[in-house]
Amino acid sequence: MIQGINDILFVVIILEIMRTVIVRFTDGIFQLDNFLIIGVIAAVRHILTVGASLTMEKEKTTEYFNRALIEMGVNTGIVLALVFALFLSRAARKSSAAK
Questions:
Q1: What is the pTM of this model?
Q2: What does the buried/exposed string (b/e) look like for 62-79 if buried means 16 or more CB atoms within 10 Å of the residue's CB?
Q3: Please, which contacts does 29-32 make with residues 24 or more away whose CB atoms are closer than 8 Å?
């Protein structure tokens, strides 16, 4: 089941990249928001993968556990930073459209 979720998220990432590239070539507009969303999906996918490997691993060493927690913490920081960048991007677009 975990592998299925991982595969579905991977397909979503590929589809988002393809959609962004197609829009870029048809409209000529670079859409930053789409790349930020792809980054969020990829980081969440990695968090889920690390969490699943932690629960499935029978013999967890302290080093492996600590490394996995650090990895999940870093990815959580990445998700927060990307969501904040997405918020800033949308706020900037709204303020420029209002002018």
A1: 0.77
A2: eeeeeebeebbeebeebb
A3: 32/89
How far is the C-alpha of 75 from the C-alpha of 83, rounded, in Å? 12
CA 87/CA 68 separation, integer angstroms:
28
Q: What is the pLDDT of residue 99?
A: 67
Q: What is the mean pLDDT of residues 57-61?
A: 80
Distance CA 44, CA 72 (A): 9
Looking at residues 12-29, what average pLDDT do you find? 81
Whether the CA torsion 73, 75, 76, 77 is positive or negative: it is positive
Each domain of the chain, given as residue ranges in start order, spans: 2-98
Burial of 35 (C-beta count, 10 Å sphere; 0-12/13-18/19+): middle
What the block records as the tokens of 91 is: 């706020």
Fill in the DSSP letter of residue 59: S
